[in-house]
Amino acid sequence: MEGCLKDAHARSELRDGVDVRAVADFIVAACTGMQMYSWIVSGRKDLAKRTASMWQVLLPGIATESTLGAVKATTRRAGALVR
Fold it and tell me: Are the C-beta atoms of residues 72 and 79 closer than 8 Å to each other?
């Protein structure tokens, strides 16, 4: 995750002052917890929805305005990634 965020920073896709390491650690922990919780409450059936929701909350705090316009955190897209 840190590598992905470093790449995003190099492309000027992250807001000024974003601590790449701290955000990477947070995302990994959030994803781990989200997967565990999703398993408990729905057998992972709601994982795509939870993943999209996480990114919808997180991206406005770390991504530049122009990047936000280009990124769509949808349940369908998340579903393709969480299989």
Answer: no
